[in-house]
Amino acid sequence: MTNKSQLNINDSAYSEILHQAISQIKVAQTLIAKQVNSASNSVYWNLGKLLFEKQLEEGYGSGVVKQLSIDLKNEFPDMGLSPRNLWNMKRYYERYYQVDTKLLQRVAVLPWGHNLLLLDKIQSAEEANFYANEAISKGWTRDLLLNAIKMDTYGNIQKQIKSNNFDQTLPVIHANYANEVFKSSYNLGFLGITTPIKELELENRLIAKIRAFVLELGKGFSFIGNQYRLEYNNKEYFVDMLFFHRGLQALVAIELKIGSFKAEYVGKMNLYLSLLDKLEKRANENQSIGIILCADKDHLDVEIALQDINKPIGVAEYQLLLPKDELQTLVLNEINASEEENEQGK
Questions:
Q1: Based on the domain organization, do 183 and 298 belong to the same domain?
Q2: Are 321 and 189 contacting, i.e. CB atoms less than 8 angstroms apart?
């Protein structure tokens, strides 16, 4: 095996090459998986459509489907064409053939096991769309999707009151997207915090677990830096955490507060966003967005604090503790991800 010392390249340059190569492979694997899922689901869709159009129903049509299963398995033994699965394909077509294009596109790239879960557990198209989008954007396994459904993640989000001024400060399309991207609460249970800590320690722990934090934020975020320095008029300012969101094409500043929301936090964030737009934002990018992440918030306090602010700012709560089973799942995911990285780095 070739040693790096024989490559006539320094460690930093080689690490960059390796990082980019791994990134390219992961992107390709994701695209291939989506293409495979899409192709399989297309077949299942067409078989379900056939059963639907022939008006076959469980009961009087069961004999036909049973024989069809036998004959199809003789031709395609590895395709999972049992009678039960054929009926599931019919359910799949019946559930989605009249829904909007976005939902159809999302379920088309989900693994079949995820789709069966949505068929069994979810009734409304809106809820199915939410879980399908979350599963795709966050790379949920079937088990994680099941846990999210059992925890009624969709219902809990619907109950949350909007704590931002995006509708008043952003163009309509941009505001709608921002409302989809940013949540009213974030779960930081993966930090394993069980006792009170200072804001800097909270920030340091998030930096150490930045991959898990970015996953919690959602798809499209790139981490730029912490305590990001801004200088203006011979004064220095430091943003706790700075991200860039590819879909929004905007810088995202996050301020961490260990206590309850206070109105003065908005003024400070408003200043940071003005500086980011003046000093860092590129001509082709949209205005910067700020998120104040605190332990607790009162909606009326947030509403009055944001009332006359012309910069897009949201206020979100965080949770530090998780139920034991959910925490174990997160820990196992972290361990598995680390093992995969180690394997790829060999």
A1: yes
A2: yes
Write down how long the chain is.
346
Q: Are residues 212 and 303 in the same domain?
A: yes
- Let me know: does 178 contact 163? Beta carbons within 8 Å: no
Structural domain harbouring 132: 11-154
Are residues 177 and 314 both part of a single domain? yes
**pTM: predicted TM-score of the whole model, two decimal places:** 0.49
Beta-bridge partner residues of 186: 318
CB 253 within 8 A of CB 272: yes
**In this structure, are 197 and 255 located in the same domain?**
yes
295-314 as b/e, with b when 16 or more CB fall inside 10 Å? bebeeebbeebbeebebbbb
Query: Looking at the domain assignment, is residue 283 inside a domain?
Result: yes
Query: Do 292 and 304 meet the contact criterion of CB atoms below 8 Å apart?
Result: no
Domain membership of residue 96 (yes or no) is: yes
Long-range pairs of 325-329 with CB within 8 A, sequence gap ≥ 24: 326/147, 326/151, 326/189, 327/189, 327/190, 327/192, 329/143, 329/144, 329/147
Could you tell me the two tokens for 133? Answer: 């989008």
> In the Cβ-directed half-sphere of 162, how many Cα atoms lie within 13 Å?
14
Question: Is the Cα torsion angle 45, 49, 51, 55 positive or negative in sign?
Answer: positive
What's the token pair of residue 275? 């500086």
For residue 331, give every residue at least 6 positions away whose Cβ sits within 8 Å of its Cβ, in sequence order, or none: 190
Task: Specify if 170 maps to a domain.
Answer: yes
For residue 103 the two structure tokens come to: 């939902």
Give the other-Cβ count within 10 Å of 91's Cβ: 17
pLDDT tens per residue, range 172-206: 888 887 887 787 777 676 666 655 667 777 777 77
Residues 293-302 have pLDDT tens digits of 887 888 889 9
Which two tokens mark 320?
A: 């530090």
Count up the domains in the chain and report the number.
2
Q: Is residue 176 located within the same domain as residue 205? A: yes
Amino acid at 166: F
Looking up residue 174, the CATH number of its domain turns out to be: 3.40.1350.10
Same domain membership, residue 197 and residue 143: no
